[in-house]
Amino acid sequence: MSRSPVKIVVVGGSYGGVGFISNYFKEAKKLQRPVEITLIDRRDYRHNCLGSFRALVQPDFSTALWAPYTSLFPQGQGHKVVQGSLKEVHHHHIVLESGDSIAFDYLVLATGSYNPAPAKIQGITSYKQAVALNEQYHKAVQAARHITVVGAGACGVELAGEIAHAFPDKKLTVIHAGARPVDYPGFADEFKAAAAKHLRDLGIDLVLNERVSVEGLDMEHPVLEGRRQIQLKCQQRTIETDLVFLSTGYVVDTSYLRTLVPENKAADYPNFDPSSLVDQRTHRIKANAHMQIDHPAFAHIFTIGDCSNAYETATAASCTYASPILAKNVIKLIQDGNGSPSLLTKPDLPKVMLLATGPRNGVAMLPIFGTRFGNFFARMLKSKDLFSKMMWQSMNLEAPRV
Ligand SMILES: Cc1cc2nc3c(=O)[nH]c(=O)nc-3n(C[C@H](O)[C@H](O)[C@H](O)COP(=O)(O)OP(=O)(O)OC[C@H]3O[C@@H](n4cnc5c(N)ncnc54)[C@H](O)[C@@H]3O)c2cc1C
Asked: What is the set of domains in the chain, with CATH numbers?
C-alpha cells in the first residue's frame, strides 16, 4: 500500500528557509517516504538583502539581488512555491492572509526580520516595485548634499560606507547613541575601533554617544528627504542635512503564533499561553537546541534565522551553519515517525563579521589565524559581490553579470 506524502511547509524563502530546503535535498536521498514541500513567501522573488546598500548607490546591482523561485525545487515531485503571507499557525495547519489553509506534518518558520529600508523593504511583495523604490532612494542620494545616517550597527556602517565610496563629494554624518560602532556582544574592541577608524578614513563625521530624535523618522518612515536641522545635544552643535536614513536595529513579527495551541490542551497543558512561545522583548520565537519551538507539544515545528532566538545575533551566517542540522532533524523525525530519535544540536557560531563599504573595501573580524581585522578579508569574502553569486547558486540558478 502506498503511503501518502509527508507534508513539510516552509514559511520564508530567504537564508533560513532556502538554507533548510537546499540541505533537505542533500540529505533526503536516505529517506524512504515520499515528501512534498511547500514554500510560502509573501514576495514573488527572493531578495539578497546583504547587497541592498550597493544597489542604493549603483541601481543596476539590483539585478543581482532578486532571484525567482522557479528552479528551487526539482520538477514533478509535488513540491511547490506559494506567494502568500502567513497569518495564523495552528497545530497541523497554517492560514494565510488570503484565507487559504495549508496542512502540514512538519513546519519550518523562517520569516526573518525587517531592517529599515533600504536594507529590507517592508510592505512590498513584488520585486519590480522594490526595484522602483530603490531607484527613488538612489535619486534622493544623488540629489542630497549632506546625508545623515542614524545608527552605527553593522547596517549603519555599511550604508554610510557604500555612500561614501560611491559619492566621495557628499558630506556624510553618522550619529550613534553608543560609545562604539558595531557594539555587539562578544566582538573584539579592536574590531569596533577598526570600524570607527574606517568610517573616519572615508571622511565620514562619526558622532558617538549622541542619541538624537528626528521628527518623523521611525521604522515606518526610515528615509526622510528634505532640508532639516538635527541638534546634537552632547556636542552642542547643529547639523544641517537634506536626507536622513534610520539604521537602528530590526523588528520581528511572529504574531502568527498567537493562534497556536496544543492539540490536547485541556488534558495536557490546561494553562498553556501562546505568548510563552515568543521572547516578549524581541518577539523572536523561543527555540530549543534542536531548533524546534521550545515546548514539548510542538516537536514538529521548527524555526531558523532572524525570527528565532536560537542565536543571539541575527545573521545569515547562523542560517548557513544551522540549516544542515535542521534538515537532518526533520528527516530523522520523518524516518522515525512517532518514535523519539536523538536529534542533533545546533552548532556554536564563530564570531565572524564582515562589513563591506564599497566593492574593494571593508572591515572584518574572523576567527582564523587568530582574530584578524581589515580590508583584505572583507574584500576577498564579501565586498565584491555581497554573496550574490552564492544566493543564486542556492536557488539553482546562474547569477547575472553586473
Ligand atoms: C544590509 C545588510 C547586510 C547584512 N550583512 C550580513 C553579513 O554580511 N553576514 C551575515 O551573516 N548577515 C548579514 N545580515 C543579516 C542577514 O541578512 C539576516 O540575518 C538574514 O537575512 C536572515 O535570514 P532569514 O531567512 O532569517 O530572514 P529574512 O532574510 O528576513 O527573510 C525572511 C523571508 O520571509 C518572508 N516573510 C516574512 N514574513 C512573512 C510572512 N508572514 N509570510 C510569508 N513570508 C514572510 C520574507 O518575505 C523573506 O523572504 C545583513 C543584513 C542586512 C540588512
From this structure: 6-42+84-113+252-336 (3.50.50.60), 138-248+351-385 (3.50.50.60)
Beta carbon of 388 within 6 Å of any ligand 1 atom? no
Instruction: From the CA of 87, give the closest atom in ligand 1.
Output: 41
Per-residue model confidence as pLDDT tens digits over 306-327: 999 999 888 999 999 999 999 9
Indicate if ligand 1 lies below 6 Å from the C-beta of 112.
yes
| Residue 245 near ligand 1, beta carbon < 6 Å | no
Sole residue written with cell 563625521: 205
**pLDDT tens digit sequence for 140-197:** 999 999 999 999 999 999 999 999 999 999 999 999 999 999 998 888 899 999 999 9
Q: Strand order of the sheet with strand 86-89?
A: 86-89, 93-96, 101-103
* CB of 12 closer than 6 angstroms to any ligand 1 atom: yes
Report field, pTM of the whole predicted structure over 0.70:
yes
